[in-house]
Specification:
By secondary structure, this protein is of the alpha/beta class. It has one domain: 3-Layer(aba) Sandwich (Rossmann fold), CATH 3.40.50. 38% of the residues lie in helices and 24% in strands. The protein is built from ten helices and eleven strands. It has a five-stranded mixed barrel. Helix 8 links the parallel strand 9 and strand 10. Helix 2 crosses helix 4, helix 4 packs parallel to helix 9 and helix 5 runs parallel beside helix 9. The chain is globular, with a radius of gyration of 20 Å.
């Protein structure tokens, strides 16, 4: 009887799938809703703490699977958690591409890298807008190899870790992705009162492998922040013609004895203020962002 019921369920499922496209099937699998339930502007946090803060700002909320719709500063948006890491972010963006989304703005935390020069130091609560993101993740190279037509326009640099660590498995070069310039300019202009800093960012898959050697290698190429999603977001935005940007608040300082996530339990008073300000920046920029989208 159990086997018979499973066969009936499978037959019904296959019958239903005949009436939708493969693209819609993918959206339903990963976003748990149909493509038409997604707005053209998506705000994409990764961690639940930030997701809840954004949802508290939404008006006229409605929920469709993983997609939370509403109005923010008078603009219709969808808020979706990508979950943490480049593989999760890639799956979410692949789904959003199939919803005809026009712009994706990542709002979340990042780690800050203190520099050893005379430049202004990165502090907890600072808002960073990435201008160049080094693809230290494992997902971006797979997409680059599968989309060789983008190689002529891709920037790359010598991998600083290949110079500092004598490990043959480390790639000699690392690719660089960038946000949509128009989107970035609007966010910088609208958020000028919050003293936003344009920064070079490194995207990693290995949160628990931020050793001092790793941090020193990033300092050597003037990287000021570390996250786990922006490189693949910008890369897929480039491949799929979706405008993308990240607005990141510095939550911790890897390598700092007092505010390193893995060395101290002390939370800086500006950590929550920073993410609140990052959300305000995006909210203020939304009407102009909406006006440039087709």
């Amino acid at each position: 009887m159990f086997i018979m019921l499973n066969k009936i369920k499978l037959d019904l499922l296959n019958l239903g799938l005949k009436f939708i496209s493969i693209d819609e099937k993918i959206v339903r699998m990963f976003l748990e809703t149909k493509p038409s339930n997604t707005n053209k502007i998506v705000i994409l946090p990764a961690v639940n703490f930030v997701m809840k803060k954004i949802l508290n700002k939404l008006q006229n909320k409605s929920v469709h699977g993983r997609v939370c719709n509403g109005r923010l500063n008078g603009v219709n948006v969808s808020v979706i958690s990508s979950l943490v890491g480049s593989p999760n972010c890639a799956i979410t963006v692949e789904s959003l591409k199939r919803c005809n989304v026009k712009a994706i703005i990542r709002v979340d935390f990042c780690g800050g890298i203190e520099n050893d020069s005379d430049q202004p130091q990165i502090k907890i609560g600072d808002i960073l807008i990435p201008k160049n993101v080094y693809c230290g993740d494992g997902t971006s190279p797979s997409y680059i190899s599968n989309n060789s037509e983008i190689l002529p326009q891709m920037k790359y640099a010598s991998n600083p870790m290949s110079k500092m660590l004598d490990i043959k498995s480390i790639n000699e070069n690392v690719f660089i992705t960038q946000p949509n310039d128009e989107l970035k300019k609007i966010i910088l202009q609208e958020g000028s009162e919050y003293k936003i800093k344009e920064a070079n960012l490194w995207t990693t898959d290995a949160l628990f492998c931020e050793t001092q050697e790793f941090i020193d290698s990033l300092k050597s190429i003037n990287v000021q922040g570390v996250d786990m999603e922006s490189s693949i977001l910008f890369l897929l935005g480039n491949i799929y013609k979706i405008k993308t940007a990240s607005v990141l608040s510095v939550s911790d300082l890897p390598g700092n004895s007092k505010y390193d996530l893995f060395k101290s339990n002390e939370l800086h008073p500006n950590m929550e203020l920073g993410i609140d300000n990052a959300i305000k920046v995006v909210s203020k920029a939304l009407p102009k962002i909406n006006s440039i989208l087709n």
